[in-house]
Amino acid sequence: MQGEFEMSMMGELSFFLGLQIKQRKDGTFINQAKYVNDMLKKFGLEIAKPQATPMSSSINLDKDEGGKYVDSKLYRSMIGSLLYLTASRSDIMFSVCLCARFQASPRESHLVAIKRIFRYLRDTPNLGLWYPKDSFFSLHAYSDADYGGVR
Question: What angle do CA 148, 32, 57 make, to 5 degrees?
Answer without folding.
Answer: 15
